Structure formats: structure tokens, C-alpha cells
Amino acid sequence: MIMMKRFVYINDDQVSHELYCDNRISNRKYTILNFLPKNLWEQFSRFMNQYFLLIACLQLWPLITPVNPASTWGPLIFIFSVSATKEAWDDYNRYLSDKKANEKKVWIVKNGIKKQIKAQDIHVGSIIWLRENDEVPCDLVLLGSSDPQGLCYVETAALDGETDLKTRVVSSSCMGIDSELLHKIKGVIECPNPDKDIRRFDANLRLFPPFIDNDVCPLTIKNTILQTCYLRNTEWACGVAPFFSGNETKLGMSRGIPEPKLTAMDAMIDKLTGAIFIFQIVVVMVLGVAGNVWKDTEAKKLWYVEYPHEGPWFELLIIPLRFELLCSIMIPISIKVSLDLVKSLYAKFIDWDEKMVDEETSIASHATNTAISEDLGQVEYILTDKTGTLTENKMIFRRCCINGIFYGNDSGDALKDVELLNSIEAGSPDVIRFLTIMAICNTVIPVQSKSGAILYKAQSQDEDALVHAAAKLYMVFLNRNANILEIKFNSSSIQYELLETLEFTSDRKRMSVVVKDCKNGKIFLLSKGADESILPYAIAGQQTRAFVEAVEHYAQMGLRTLCLAWRELMNDEYREWSLSFKEASSALVDREWRLAEICQRIERDLQVLGVTAIEDRLQDGVPETIETLRKAGINFWMLTGDKQDTAIQIARLCNFISPEPKGQLLMINGKTEDEVRVSLERVLRTMRITTSEPKDVAFVVDGWALEIAVTRYRKAFTELAILSRTAICCRVTPSQKAQLVQLLKSCDYRTLAIGDGGNDVRMIQQADIGVGISGREGLQAARAADYSIGKFRFLRRLILVHGRYSYNRTAFLSQYSFYKSLVICFIQILFSFISGVSGTSLFNSISLMAYNVFYTSVPVLVSVLDKDLTEETVMQHPQILFYCQAGRLLNPSTFAGWFGRSLFHAIVVFTISIHSYAYEKSELEEVSLVALSGCIWLQAFVMTLETNSFTILQHIAIWGNLAAFYVINWIFSTIPSSGMYTIMFRLCREPSYWTAIFLTVAAGMGPIVALKYFRYTYRPSKINTLQQAERLGGPILSLGSIEPQARTIEREVSTLSIAQPKMRNPMYEPLLSDSPNSTRRSFGPGTPFDFFQPQTRLSAGYSRNCKDN
Amino acid sequence: MDSNTPPSSSAAAGSADPSAARRNSKRPKYSRFTQQELPACKPILTPGWVISSFMLVSIVFIPIGVASLLASHNVVEIVDRYDTVCIPESARNDKVNYIQSPGDKTCTRNITVTKHMKKPIYVYYQLDNFYQNHRRYVKSRSDAQLRSNGSADDVSSCEPEDKSNGQPIVPCGLIAWSLFNDTYDFSRNGQQLSLNKKGISWKSDREHKFGKNVFPRNFQNGSLIGGGSLNSSLPLSEQEDLIVWMRTAALPTFRKLYGKIEDDLQANDVIMVTLENRYNTYSFNGKKKLVLSTASWLGGKNDFLGIAYLTVGGLCLFLAMVFTILYLVKPRQLGDPSYLSWNRNPG
């Protein structure tokens, strides 16, 4: 490594103390001292807050303030203290959890003596002693373990979410050192600066006398145990520590502050706020100029106003500034708080939703990011992982093909295949060898539980499935004792000595073990791996055609295949090879590459035994979910690391792509740039032709072609991405997944990425919305995601119910907030025309403040309970999501509607108040309260009109608020020093007050109700039609049951393979006469697909182009 | 799936795994609120509802409108504009100069009662184009000073009429300073009509806003005389003209109560008004009017409410008719799924 290095001296406090930090963990954002300034600084970095602060400061100038400064300062301080309190509370909780971790007791060894200290006092270089089930306090390099082989087991669930045990080994130079001596060990570790990669660690260890072994011993991640892991199945272990401590541990480094995500809706609200701000500036300038002109021409004549002849230098500014303050309420100060409140409620609704609780594991859905629920309703693209997301990632051994004989084809389960059982009983050598490889060619650790049953701890689900299947077929892997592998076949015990393990890497795509039969001393190489990495190395002369066919056959069914092979090794050959293997495995340079080369040398001339087929079942409800969401106009892309055939098969099974003749698959392939370009262009041409037809076209691309397409032909590929509703990308890497998300985002699409494993984390973080499935591949994805759900099918509810409602509610709430602020502001502006454009406020400070933060904010909050359509209707007509996707409920034109409404209401209220309270009744305080009452009454009716469903809470909020308005004003009317002393009592006794109020309501609401009724009845939107249908019990179109149908992969797969035996050889036919390369995969209009047809037909006409209508 | 598969590895670590326990406890509690399943009533705008509510509004509003108009018409109101008439012909070229110069400005007006007026008859003065709601004006008062004797120095908000010769003015501010000071005397057939000037202000103002022990001080003794002066021996709570004046008007045209005539006036009675025309509205072209008016349950003469009610009621009736006709001529089934575009062209 050329990077910066650091040296850690083991057991030597003096040196490392000063150099590196201690083990104190701190996740806190603030300290007591810097809380106030830092928090204020953060809050004031937002434009809205700066604006409000400016307004509040201007109000301190009595010459220009129309009202008491408290009317702005009060809400401002309230809002600020709410968010500051929230921050402080979060930070306090972080402090508490840090403190708990920091004060945990750990055993360390100092100068040869064990003692217990607090975790925060651990220093770099001290030796930590761990016992079984201890949590690892910091990153450690293993020096010793109770296991004679120097092994120890750790559970890394907290780190990467994987619950299986991982083995870690003591570094080779410390192997076998007595535990007493370990206390006094001295040495130096040379390591790179801390980073957050939990899969890599390149360092060297050198011990000091008397422990000199060889000069330098390399360390890898295998020699470390990381913070927050648990030590399991190992009596004790000790490690030098903390290798990286405190906030420098791998975990500490990978904790990042997630970048705040901004929803499309927030962006729209910001845009509208900006527009209102500009409008406000224009109004202020116009009124300011008018005010100054009026002052100079008219007000100078008003002797009773006593304008001085010579004003101060800033005289021209006074009137515009007064209007600025009067109009400052145009931007509602309460909108931010209201939005934050309702957003956290949306998130709570997701957390609380019983229908999204995974029944098997009782894991509830969880919204980690509480701020982006509206975006769920606006999703346009869903990028999904395959394994573990669409499928259960619960591997079950289903079929196998041994020496060309297919087992399990009839029953769908090889374990029950009589033929196989018979040949096992008969002791067919190939079958037994096949089973042996299934049982021991792996890294599985059998653990004897207390009840005597054997539990297998496997790192890979495939191995787990194979070992379990072997056990059912009477080949039980009993024990892994040091190097002895013990298996039991029928009732006889067989022992193998494990000589070498050639580990699985994603490049080699196979793993092998070299074992010695303890009975006869024969040495075997047992291999298993992907077909393309086993079959080419078959021994010359062996017919692999049958295996190729088997692999293809299984892949067509969506099964995962592994080829098993073996070879007997001569003693000499093994000895010679094992020397070079050992050498390579201790190489410091290019270790992995050299190992691969050495392995290659022995993994040849393989005797291929057969093919296993493991089923990764589709999760419940996946096809239905995808179909519903596709009908809702959401485009699906599948990004998987799996093979093309398997991917396409799974895609077909879960309604990803429609069958012929509707569906069409276009391949993009090629190894060179030119091939990819030609292929891409052909696909694009086809795509352009077919967009006009109601066809469902999908393209398939593999990782290699994708890389070329994205880097070299980005423009063409982007166009393709826009045209295509469906895509299948196979063999893609995590970074390519993220790249694709980025590509779609750059085209301004709302993307949702869903995945379950560590390889999806980057895509999840990149996407607008990341959804993690808390599945078997661990919690890593769920941890990084904005939403975590238990099963893929909950996505439907998450988007159609929670996303849609959130969008609708926020759309109403935000526009209403502007509407009510504009109403009061327009009244003020209208009043200024009859008060000499001097900037008098019609309303007093108390009314203004209460209007904004109380009278109008509380009722609108209950709109979070509003449902325009029932959940069932939405599920039946997912197309309705289009209104959210296209942003039909919050955009400049709907906002213009609310703007117009506020102007209309302001005129109604103002005209009626000043005319019914004219002449002898024209008293300022009274007119102001009449106008305010008119506003409040109108608000109540507007809320009523715009609410779709009234629960008891809505009634309380709307009518209770109206009552509260009177109660509050009566209270203020009893205080002699308040401006409105007795006014409200006086008004309530006057018939003219009530007649004016009723007139206001009728005149204000009449035209709006009439317009709404007209639109509702004669120009109904789809939402309206569905509302009417649902509430009048009218003829709701039934699309048939949308409940998950009980369908198993079995039935379909078997009908598939029986009815369409030709499917084994995919048919290729040229699409365009001049395009031999561009291929179109035809599925043939087979009967099995009729099943899909009635449902998919409807979705076709509904393409994403709808949006342009 | 096979049920006899050995439990997966994760179960082994079960009890010791803190996250597993946490996950289980996260299962939410059921309540209708958390599931968003609160019973709700979901009204929709059906033709029946909409038409009948428009009908109802018109049925209620038209009678109220008629009643208001009747009430307004039953009010007898006599308005007499005197601002120009009360200036001698010779001085009409320079009214401002006339009004500002000292001297007797008595003026006599004869008003003929058009209709029988029942007592009490309210006497108002009406000012037009007078901006009592001007920001500079409306703020220039000190409520604390008016309320209690101790706060006499509280004149900070009264600029520019806050102090005179360094002494605080009580009552301070532009509003008090510009107090209206025309006076009226009424006589019928040479006989004095008694004008009740008690109780013309709000009781609450007399009792709580204007102190009983606050007496005018330094009032109108600055270099610039505004409006009327006050009797410095009477407490503010008894200076009812001031209390009325200090209730600022919201509109530039307003009436303020001057007194009540506690006597019926017969039709064709001629009332002679002797008025002192002192108040300067001439510099800003303001009008001055004397108003005698009776009152109805809705207050004075004001046709606005009646006309507005009739208009709104009429419009509602019209809309109800239009919607009914539309409904009959072009019935439309609500919730017809054929309006859903995705049902219309399936493919």
C-alpha cells in the first residue's frame, strides 16, 4: 500500500497514547456549550428561516411595524424551539447510548496482569481479553484463541446483518503461543490509516523477541474481529487492540450522516414559495410607490396627520417597508412546522400498519426517513434486485441430474424421487459421490445442539440447501473436527481428512476441497461451481452435452444450478501442488490472483458428476404486486447479479414481462464496443417503432454490455431507458446498479430502489427512495434504506396506500396553508386602499398571530386522516396513482386555483365587512373582528368542502376550532387593556354581525360549491368518478380478485416444461431483415400464458405517455 | 415447502441476539387510529344535495333580504351637508383661510323633516375623506395615559403631539388633538329641542378605558391648534365627545354620534340648527354633514345587506334551477366506470 501508514506497538502504552485517540465513542452532534450557536446556525442556513428572521427584526422598528413584534417573534421562537428541542432530545439520546457503550467493562491485559477497565479507556496497542458471548469493544487483531487451530467464531449481525457465524483465525505468527505468554507479547503492527471498508484490511505484523517467528506476517480481514461483533462458540480469544479505536473503527468510519433527501413535493413547495415571494416583492413595490405618491399629493394636505415638511433620509423607504411587513404573512410561517408534523405522522402510520407486518418474523415495516413519504406516491421507476427481493432467498434443493439422468422432474422434488432413492439404496457409486460432494464440498460448520440435532452454520444459502438435502438423502455431515470431516451414510461413518480448501471467489465462480479418504488414503479433489466454470474443465472425452442441457433446462425454470465434479489426485501430484499453493497463499503481492492461478492448475480434467438445481422461491404475492404496480404506471427494472436465463425466467414468472405476442424481449449484447453499439442501435430502432403500438417491450442487457453502453453510448442508452418500460439487467455489479439509478434520476424520474443485500446498498442510497427488505441476506440494506419492509409484496401497500395518501394530504395541506395566509394578506392590501395607502393593519397583533398559528393551522392538521378513496378502491384501480405521479394535485395550475380562491374570498370578506359596517358602525376594532370572523367561517367551510372523509377528529377540529375562535375572542374581550375589550360580546349581540357572517359564508362558498359540483358531475376526474362509484355503490368495475392467488412455481414450471419441451432451446429469429445480430426472443403463444393475459391486457394502453395528455 | 428442514442457523443465536428481541417488540399495537380505520362519513356532491342546499339558501336568504331592506327603508334619515353652505359667499374662494381665521362662524340651517321620526333620534356628524385610519394617525394615542392618572408621562406613542413645552399633553396624540369641534343646537318652531349628550359613548369606554381621575392637561396649548379643546375640570371619562372621537373609524367616510333628541319629530316639522362651523375639513376637501336618523334592528339606514341578501338568494335560486334543468336534460350517472380512460380503450 502506498497510502499513509501507521504503526501500532503492541502492549506499549507510552508510544501510542499520544499518537492515536482513545476508545471513546462519540456520535454526538453538539456539546452543551456549542448547542445554541450551532443549532441556530443550522436552522438559519435555510432561506425560509432567514426570511422570517429578517421580518422579525424589521418589526422591532416601531416606525414601520404595523403590529406588535410579538406576532412574528412568538411563532418564530416557538418554531425554533420546537426544532431545537427535537435536536437536543436526539442528541441527548445519542449521548446516553454512547455513554453506555463507553462505560462497558472490558478485560484487558496490562504488563502481564488481567484487569477490568471501562471501554472508553482502552488505548491503541493494549491487549483485550474476550470471553464467549462478549461484545467486541473495538476493532481487534486476533492474537490468540482457545481453539487449538487458532480459530474463533464471530457473529457479525450488527455490522452487516448476517446472522450466520463467521470464522476468524489467529494470525499465523501467533499461532500456538501459550496463553500465559500472550500476556507479555510485544510487537508492531503496520497498517493503513483507518477506513470504512469492512471487507478489507491489509496490514503486517511483526513480533518482537522472544517471539520472533519470521520477519513479517501478513494480516487480512480474516485475522480481525470488528467492533460490535459477538464472540460465539469460542471459550476465549484475545486480540491486540484497539487496533482502530473509538470513532476510528471500521464501524465508526462507516457511520455517515445521510444526505437529506428532498422530495419532489418539497421542491415544488419551494418553487411556489419562491413565486409567492416574488409576487410579494412586486406588491410591496407597487404599494410602496403608490403610498409615497399618495403621501406627497394627498397626505400633506391632511393637517391632522401632521406630516413633517422635511422627513428623515430614509423617508422614502418607510412605506415600502411597512408593506413588506404587512405582506410578510403571505409566506405562512406555520407551513414548515405543519409539514414536519404531518410527515412524521405519515411515517408513524407506516410503522403502525398491521397489514405490513411480516407474519413469519413479526417484523413491522419501518420508515427510517420520515421526510419523504410523499415521494412514494410519485414513484415512476422501481429498480429491484432479484435474489431475496423478488424471491425468498430460501434455497431448497429441488432437482438434480446425475450422469444424464434427471431426478425430480415428475414430483418436482428430487428428495422424494423414488428412482433416486432406489439408486442410493443400490449404492450407485456416482450417486454416492454426488452426495458426498453435496455434503462436504463446502465451508459449512455442523453444530451439535443440546437436543442432539445437528444444526448447520453456513455462509451461503446454496451450501446450506445442499447439505440439508444430502442429509435427507442419508448422507449426513456430522462433524468438522479440526481437519477431520465426519459423515454418516446410512449407518456407516466415513471420515475424510480435509487437506485444502480452495475458496469461492466471484471471479473463479467455483470452490473445491481436497480431501483424503481416511480409509484408503486416496486423495480427491471435489469441486462445485457455476456451469461455465466447471464444464470447460471437464476431462477430455467426457460428454458434457447432457449437463449443458440440464443446466439450460433448469435455468428455464428459474432454478439455480451448480455443477458438481470430482477428480482423484495422485499423491505426488498433490504434494507438488500443495507446496506451490502454500507459497501462493502467503504471498504478499497479488495474493488472490496467484491463488487463482494455482487453483486453476489442479481444477482440470474434472469428472463432471451432475447438476443440482436449487429453487429460490418467489415470495408470496410478487407477481400480483408487480402487476398492480405496473398498472399504476410504474416501470420496473430488474437489476441482478444472476445469469441471464434465470433472470428472464424469474422476470416472466413475476409478471415482469408479458408473454408473446404482447411482450417482446430485445437483447443488447456484444463483447466489443462496436457490437454493443450495433446492438444498441437496433434495439433502439425497434423500440421507437413499437412505442406507438400497445406492445410491452423490454430490453435485456448484461453487465459487460451495460458498462460499454453506459460509458460510451450514454445518450443512446438514456433514450432507450426512457422508451422502455421494463428492463432486465443481469450480471451487474453494485456500482452499476447505482449507476443505473443515477442515469434514471438524471432524466428527472422519481426512482425507488428495492433490495435486500449488501450489494444493493449503494443503489438504495442513490435512489430517491431506498427500500430495504429485512431479509435473509441480513439487515444491511434495510439499515441503509429509507423504508424497510418485511416482504416485497408490502411495496404495493407502501406505494399505493401510504405514498398516495401522503401525497394527497401534503398537496392539500401546503396549498391550504398558502391560501389562508393569502386571504388575510389580500384583506390587508385591500384595506390599505381605503386607509390612504399608509400601511395600516386592519387586524390587531393578537388576531394575526392566532390566525396563523392557531385558528387555521390546527384544523388543517387533521387532514392527515383524510382519505379520498378507500384503500380497496385504490388497490383495484391502481391506475389512479397517475394523479400523484404526474403531480396533478400540486402544481402551478392547482396553486393558481387556490390563489384565485383566496383573492375571491378576501374580496368577499372585505366588501361585506366594510359595507355592512359602514357609517356610524364603522369602528376599526369592530370591522376588524367582523372581517376576521368572516375569514374563520370561510376557512371552516373550505375545510369541510375539501375534506373527503369525515372522522370524528375532523369534526372536532373544524367545528371545535370555530367554537374556540369565539371562546378565545370572548376571553380577550374581557381584558380591559386589550384593544378588543368588549368588542366580541358587543358583536355577538348585534343581528347585523350575524347577517354579515352568513352573507359572507353564502357569497364566499356558493360559487365554489357550484363550480365544484359542476366539475364533479360533468367534468369528473378519475378520482371523482371512483369516489362516486365507491360511495354510491355504483357499478364498480371489478377486475377480479386481486388477492394473491395460490400458485406455486411447481405447477407452472411443470406445465411449462411438459407443454413446451422446445423451450430448452430458445428460439432466435431476426427481427429486422438486416439485423442478424439483434435478436428478439420469442416465447411462442403457448397455452400456459393465457393465465396472464386477461390481467395484463388492461395495463397496455396505460403507458407512461399518458402524462402528456 | 418442507416443514422438516432443520431450523436455519439464525435461530441458534436467537436468545443472545439483542436485535431479535428488539424486532419482536416493535410489532405495533392495534388501534383504529393507527390503522387509519376510524369510521368516517364520506359525503359527496350529489345533485340532490347540491340543488336542495342551494334551494334552502335562497329560501332563507330572500326573506332575510326583504326584511333587511324593509328595516332599512323604515329608517328615516335626514342628511344635511353644510361645509360649503356655512361659509359666507365672500369667503368661499379661500375657505381654509376663513376657517382658520378667528371670529364668529355661527351658521343656521333649516331642516325639514320628511317623515315622522320616532324617538330617540340620533344626531350624527359625518365626515367624508377623513382618514382616521391613516397609520400615522391611528397609532398616535396612549391608552395607558387615558386610563390612569399615573401614566401621564406615557406619551412615547403619541408623536408628534406628545409634549407641549416639555410637559406631557393629556390626552396626547394626533387623534385627541384633532378632536371635532363643530357644535349643533336644535330648535323647533323657536322652541329649543333638548339634545341628550349623555351616554353617546360606549359604557365600557367610559368605565374602563377613560379614567375617572384623569384630567386634561396642556391640551391644545401648543403652537399649533388642531381641533377642539377640553374642559380641564372634567375627568376624561365624562368627556364623551372625546371618547366617541377616539373610537377611530375604519373607513374614510364615517359618522359619529353627537347626541340624541329624545322627542318625536313630525313630518314637515322644520328644525332650525344653529351650528358653530369651526372644524377645518377644507384643506383636504372633506365634506361635513349633519345627520338625523332613527334606528332599526339592523342599525341605521343601510341598503347593502338587504340588496346583498337578495342577490345571493337570487343567485342561489338561479343556480338551483340551472342545476335542476341540467340534471333533467342531461342526466349523468355518477361513478360510471366508462369514464375511466383505462377502461375505455383497453389496448
From TrEMBL, chain A:
One of its GO terms (cellular component) is plasma membrane. Its cofactor is Mg(2+). The active site is at D385 (4-aspartylphosphate intermediate). Residues 102-165 form the P-type ATPase A domain. GO terms for biological process: phospholipid translocation. Keywords: ATP-binding, Magnesium, Membrane, Metal-binding, Nucleotide-binding, Translocase, Transmembrane, Transmembrane helix. Residues 782-1021 form the P-type ATPase C-terminal domain. Its EC number is 7.6.2.1. It is found in: Endomembrane system; Membrane. ATP binds at D385, K386, T387, E463, F504, K528, R560, T640, G641, D642, R731, K737, N759, D760. It catalyses: ATP + H2O + phospholipidSide 1 = ADP + phosphate + phospholipidSide 2. The chain crosses the membrane at residues 272-294, 818-837, 843-865, 952-972, 992-1014. Signal peptide: none annotated. One of its GO terms (molecular function) is ATP binding. InterPro entries: ATPase_P-typ_cyto_dom_N, ATPase_P-typ_P_site, ATPase_P-typ_TM_dom_sf, ATPase_P-typ_transduc_dom_A_sf, ATPase_P-type_domA, HAD-like_sf, HAD_sf, P-type_ATPase_IV. Residues 8-73 form the P-type ATPase N-terminal domain. It is a multi-pass membrane protein. Belongs to the cation transport ATPase (P-type) (TC 3.A.3) family. Type IV subfamily. Residues 1069-1090 are annotated as: Disordered. Pfam families: Cation_ATPase (PF13246), E1-E2_ATPase (PF00122), PhoLip_ATPase_C (PF16212), PhoLip_ATPase_N (PF16209). This is Phospholipid-transporting ATPase. Mg(2+) binds at D385, T387, D756, D760.
From TrEMBL, chain B:
This is ALA-interacting subunit. PANTHER family: CDC50, ISOFORM A, CELL CYCLE CONTROL PROTEIN 50. Residues 1-21 have a biased composition (Low complexity). Keywords: Membrane, Transmembrane, Transmembrane helix. Signal peptide: none annotated. Pfam families: CDC50. One of its GO terms (cellular component) is plasma membrane. Belongs to the CDC50/LEM3 family. The keyword S-adenosyl-L-methionine does not apply. The keyword Transmembrane helix applies. It is a multi-pass membrane protein.
